[in-house]
Structure formats: C-alpha cells, structure tokens
C-alpha cells in the first residue's frame, strides 16, 4: 500500500512559478488546447512534441517530472486495461492468435497510442491541479461557464461540485492510508492470497471509509450552511481575476503547438 504515500493527483502545491501566477481561466483553456493536440497525435514525432511540451510546462511550474509521474499510479490499471483491450481485440490482419485473443499490427499501434494519450491526459490534468488552488479553479470554471447561465445552466453549482471532488481526493487518500495502517497494526493481511481473499480482506477498510466519506460530507454541508452559503447568486470574489499578457501568451503558445503538429505531419507526410 505504499503507493498511497506518494500520491500527487488532486493536490495543490503552492509556489511562485510562472504557471502558478496565470489566470485559472487561461490554465483551463490551455489544458483544453493541450488535450485537443494530444488526441490528434498519432505519429512518434507527435508524442515527442507533446512530451517536450509537458516537460516545459513542468519546468515553468517548478514541478519535477518525477513528482508529476506519481499521478499515473492512480489510473495505471485503467491505462493498462485500455491498452490490452485494444491490443487483443482491435480489427486487422492477425500476427498472432489464440482463441478470441489476437494481436494485429493495427492493434499494437492502437494500444500504445491509447496508452500514451491517457498518460499525457492525466499528467496535463494533474499539472492543472498542482498549480491551481481549489477556490481559484472553482471561480475560473464558473467564469468560463457563466455565459451559459442565461440558458439555465448551473455554472456555479457545477464548478463547486468539481472543486469539492478534486479537493476530497487527497483527503480520501489520507483517510484510506490511515485506515490501512490501523488494520495492518491489528494483523490484517491485505497483500497475500487469492484475488477473492484480498477483496474480502478489504471489507474492513471500505466500510469505515464509506462512513468517513458521509461524515465529511455532512460536516462540509453544516460548515457551508453556518457561513450562510446560498449558491452563487450575488457572491463576489475576494481576489478578482485580472487577465494579463502572460495569459494570452500561454493560450497562443498552446494553439501554436497544435498548428506546429499539423505542419509537421504535412511536411513529413
């Protein structure tokens, strides 16, 4: 259970970096552009381009790539499962086959492509949460969605739910780690035996975890009501947003990366 000790996904790390000082709206927009480019990537030099972009973003945010890579542990099973699914069940002329499982050249290409896409998606998204406080992210998302309020879209409520969900990730990981250590101190064996036995051994962990989740949710609701929280109508921000030239430069840079990728594909063919 050591993976819980170094989990980085969903955490905010305060710093005075260039990325930290960007407007949260610019960071959300930049993330959307970066993910668009990642999902358009197919060839090896495309992945080199986006890996270099990730390294540059990490350097500008004063975040080590090693610390950033820890977030992969959260979704490693999903990445491996998706890659294997595409590897064994993608259409194409089979290179190897055993029963319903077959490996084709198209399947191999699709497997590593999907694995790289999911990996970069998680890393770029984690970079956003590492450099943006939950409150700033909530205000930024609300500002982005605010034009849709006239159509009845609950911009403030959606932004608040997303922020609370992100904020609770490190809290839940911390509580899970605490419960695991308590169970191990009582002699629980969670790492041995068959899959069924391990699942049964986790029941004493999951039950108190669910109880704690509901307790934390109730405490949060009471705290919000005690502070007279009534939704987003008429609420103001302690720190109003100020769009600067650096925010525009960040969006332009991300857009130029997509243009550069398309030009590279056109030149190389």
UniProtKB/TrEMBL annotation:
Annotated membrane topology: Multi-pass membrane protein
Any one Gene Ontology cellular component term annotated for this protein: plasma membrane
Name used for this protein in its record: Energy-coupling factor transporter transmembrane protein EcfT
Keyword Lipoprotein: no
Pfam families for this protein: CbiQ
Subcellular location: Membrane
Principal subcellular localization: membrane
Organism: Pyramidobacter porci
Keywords for this protein: Cell membrane, Membrane, Transmembrane, Transmembrane helix
Superkingdom of origin organism: Bacteria
Residues spanning the membrane: 47-69, 76-98, 110-130, 241-260
Origin organism lineage: Bacteria, Thermotogati, Synergistota, Synergistia, Synergistales
Presence of the UniProt keyword Nucleotide-binding in the record: no
InterPro entries, sorted: ABC/ECF_trnsptr_transmembrane, ECF_transporter_component
